[in-house]
# Entry
Amino acid sequence: MTILEARAVGFAYRGGAPVLSDVSVAVSPGRNLALVGESGAGKTTLLWLLLGLARPSSGEVLFDGRALRSDREFRRSVQPVFQDPYSSLDPRQRVDRIVSEPLRAMRIGARDEIGDRVAETLRAVGLPADAARRYPHEFSGGQRQRIAIARALVCEPRILLADEPVSALDVTTRVRLVQLLRELKAARDLTVVMVSHDLAVVAALCDEIAVLDRGRIVEQGASADVLGSPRHPHTRRLVASVPRLRRSAGPPSAECAER
# Structure
């Protein structure tokens, strides 16, 4: 059973060379998926296709087994978390307004219910009760990313599509955010699809990995298998660039990532 699937998709900008060619990935409930590869491999473009922000030039994207339509059910079920916690939040809006945006856009809940849902979601991501009345500039980068995660979670999605969600943060904050995502996965029956360069983060959070190279998937499978015994030369080069992964037979723990 899959929730979200790219089936033999290709993508090219008008007049340009293909960015993706014959790419297939499937997102299963409860199985976090990482899209990894070097810069320019096509990871973010694939994420845009899964979000419905772009249409494939060939192939198709399916949601619950049907051709993807950006309707209310899809937008409620699939929510994005962007890379930069500094530019993804409107500095003119208070946090309660930012987090409640998906509820208001999709007309979910009465006005008095919205405040309660925002407060509960902020607690779930580890922010203090007074955060709702404050502005983004009053928070650190890690706290801002928690606000962005709260905004994505408030409408109770099934999938988070995250583009390098911890890359702009320091190592300690990165580990804490990964732990938060692991806790949210368990508590909310959530599935995460994540673009990342950081294989230690991927190993700590994701069950499955798809490795992209120049617009094609060259290897995919369970994280322990791909990182512990990579078969494709490109995957081996990626793993070899991370000493902690090269020395171990399997993916490192979150504690290893913190060190």
